[in-house]
Amino acid sequence: MALEFWRAYRENRGALLGLAVVTVIVILAFLADVIAPYSPTEQFRDAVRMPPVWADGGTWRFILGTDGLGRDMLSRLLHGARVSLFIGVSVMSVSFVVGIALGLSAAWFRGALDVVVSRVMDLIMAVPSLVLAILVVAVLGPSLANTIVAVTIVYLPRYVRLVRASALNELSKEYVIASRVAGVGPLRLMLSTVLPNCLAPLIVQAALGVSDAILEAAALGFLGLGAQPPIAEWGTMLADAREFIRSNPSLVTLPGLAILVTVVSINLLGDGLRDALDPKMRTS
Amino acid sequence: MKMTICAAACSALLMAPAGAKTLVYCSEGSPENFTPALNTTGTSFDAARPVFDKLTQFTRGTTKVEPGLAESWEVTDGGKTITFKLRRGVKFHSGVNGFTPTRDFNADDVLFSFNRQWKDDHPYHKVSGGKYDYFGDMDMPKLLEAIEKVDDYTVRMKLKEANVAMLANLAMDFASIESAEYAAMLDKAGKKEQFDQVPVGTGPFSFVMYQKDAVIRFKANKQYWGEKALVDDLVYAITPDPTTRYSKLKAGECHFVPYPRPADLPEMQKDKTLTVINQPGLNIAYWAFNVQKPPFDKKEVRQALNMAIDKKSIIRDVYLGAGTAAKNLIPPTLWGYNDAIKDYPYDAQKARALLKKAGVATPLEIDLWYMPVQRPYNPNAKRIAEMMQADLAKIGVNAKLVTYEWGEYRKRAQQGEHMTVQLGWTGDNGDPDNFFFLRGCAAARPGGQNLSKWCDKGFDDRLNKAKSLADQKERAKLYIEMQAIEHEAAPDMKIAHSVVHEVMRANVTGYKQSPLGAHQFNGVDLK
Amino acid sequence: MLKYFLRRIALTIPTFVALMFVTFVAIRLVPGDPVEVRVGERGISAERLAHFRHELGLDQPVWKQFADYMWQLVHGDFGTSLVTNQKVLTEFAALFPATIELGLAGMLIAILVGIPAGAMAAVKRGTWYDQLLMGISVTGYSMPIFWWGLILIMVVAEGWGLTPVSGRIDLIKYYFPPVTGFMTVDAWMSGQPGAFLDALHHLVLPAIVLGTIPLAVIARMTRSSMLEVLNEDYVRTARAKGLPPRRVVGIHALRNALIPVVTIIGLQVGTLVAGAVLTETIFSWPGVGKWLIEAVGRRDYPALQGGVMLISAIVMLVNLGVDMLYGVINPRIRHGS
Question: CB 3.0–4.6 Å: which of A65, B52, B243, C118 could bond C223 by disulfide?
Fold first, then answer.
């Protein structure tokens, strides 16, 4: 089955590209400590705002130049990959687990629990994503951890709804009802019938969720509400670079490109997953 | 080269009325409202200033007090009574919000302006929130005994104790004179809250309109009694982002821009189409030692720490050049500045030696408090704290960095919970007393603003004496002596005064930078 | 039909109440005293602190504060800004037209460009045009628009000088009193030559930035929807009957393909609002998005609270409207379960 999946996936060139780029980024993030030439927080007071090596005045000492405080851009971008992927994966994992738990419970127990869970999810979806995230961070205070909390809250409903709808659908099927009557426990039922059926869309949602989380976290960082300095986060780097938009445009283009490339490749990956896993879900 | 896309219709507009000059000031924020008595931020004061006058005023570009709406005054009774003779023939703006004044400015307006802030039962006291922060902060309720109208053009102010700085207080924005007649008109129409949204005053410009968060428009007051406006229209384009302000300045969409980013300054200074001016601000950033907590009760220890810090690096890396190292509490732009004082040198060796002499065993554990927010005199207290921590480690002092949420921080510091703490001060009225009280004995009580909790009789006596003398030269002498005393005792380390830069297009003439940070546009022309 | 609508409305109300509760609790959770935090170096005396706390109702028990808050909300009082002392609703109303103008312009661009592009891609499926569009589309909705805006300013506004850098109109050349709050409409109504064009000129870049993500999503959705429809039997029948292809595509196919697209457009309102916060910040566009961010920075909690409530309420209403519209367009939904 795995081979079949791979064959289907391979057909999509965009998806392959996405996979390749994501792999590269993940490897770079993992090895950031090793391959980064400098520490991302070390300030070189004698080399402030150096341009990248290909521009006038650039040197090989700082391949991608340095920022306003003299920190090496290459190192910061590499560590930033780490931070962004960390945020993305954390948000995705937590919402995945919590989402499944909530969705399954709501579908199984119905009644008051279902109503409460559904209403809360509706509430979260009623507030525009960034506005809600801003509210959460305004309350908890800006930091890396709170960014993860805020973005998780914002994206939770998608997982819950998906699982709940799928579970409800399964639970109404005759063979499931029969099993219940026969005394099969809820946990086993969930694991054997419900989850496998919503696994495909869940996985796709998870993949796309990582990219959404990265974008949302970068937006918070840009607004000054994310990870605080000196942590190298791409959105925060962009905010810091804003004042240098005329004098050192590379400080603005590089972090933004990093975000864009990462998010695009994850989205391509997710789309490829969707197309390969379930042709019914294909949008083309 | 900038191309402007301009349809043929555009050229028709270039036939604007000949000579209608519009000056555009790109301001950094929106005003809270248009009544200075209710505000505390420079942004709000700037927004209302074109419309109002005060009894006394600062000569443009200085901290010198000169007659405003009060033509002259007499100080009697040992400094406890001031009798003001009001200027005649001064007209309030006509046509704003449907108001047409039927009389000239007189004593009723003065009484209205102060009683509104002072008396709880005044009909306008509670309008728009009822918070008159500056009136309270400058201790006006404590100082004022009475304000009386002697006749239409004479007002007498009786003080509870002599305080010469009152004249400087009256030149501050909160003491702007409003129109009692306009207030009465709005009261009758049941629209009191409009009083603070659509202002009427006697100033060099009259208010036209405010588009929230976007633009404020003023028109020149042709009947102004004082230094007139040289342009016809004044526009505040509200542009919070400094980079955008710079872009607009370059494009000619603004003529004047405050608070440029330090990073843009070199480019601005090289640009021939722009003029950059600067001045140390009326502020100070300091690092106070709590003399009630050993070993800071020993003068040598405090002096040693003064010598241990590399101030130059802080100015360069944290202030990014927009600061100047401080050696006194007051900035050099203020009268009474003691330039003869020599700042403590940066000398780690000497610092170590001094510590040893004081009998302090190293490593010494201290705390180092820093503010979590940016202040006008300190762009990044955390960064400064980290740099100081590194410098202190070199002389065997281990500093633990501590911070609290801003309100909490200030409260605890005033209680004296710290060993060492960063804070600062921004001057309000251009009077040295407004700075030096921070080291007086009265402020050293728990909850007071003297964060060093240092009390020196010689210093304090001079402080109180200077408050009561009318002669500025005599006062200056006292302040100079006080600075010497303070320097020797070293209850704190003076970090820096921030330097305020302003940028304008080269064709803007006549602008004078105010040491108080005020932006004033009468007398400013566009060539 | 009516039952369906009433049911939808009824579902919104508890959500709104829950929202009130959550924003109230959230604001109360912020560390630090709301009065203290806005005081400067001078500090504040205990009496004055007590006085202001009393004015804000902070010395009341929490349940009473909440009750008062609910009572005020029901009467349309969304609080008073700590900074300007004006009613939050007044401030919001003054700034909202600017956000609507920007949002409508962005959505217009997204629709006018996205739908034709997506339809074309469906028709030309598999060609380079299709691939290109899909590539651009993915890039579009992966775009960090705060960065995109900066790049466009850098290149288009400052580099090529094609558009102004910020603001809504040239303040030196034009002054007309605001009537509707929509700069384009007011400029048109003022009759001043060139004013309308100038307002549009200022609107272009921010609208493009804001509309980028909706454009990408709409284009993609149109494409997939069209593809589905083009495969339907009735389309093949129409073709077989010999109807000219343009008529087949343009009228029959597109009209049916648009049904799901309409839903997507409605769902984009939330995205537009989130995008407006970022776009307004970058372009100094005086709307509610920028105001909300400033409220956070200035610790203006009533404004933050009221702003979140108002924005969410409006988004909910729009979603409700779209749901109803969808119900009208697609009868199956109305009568289904």
Answer: C118
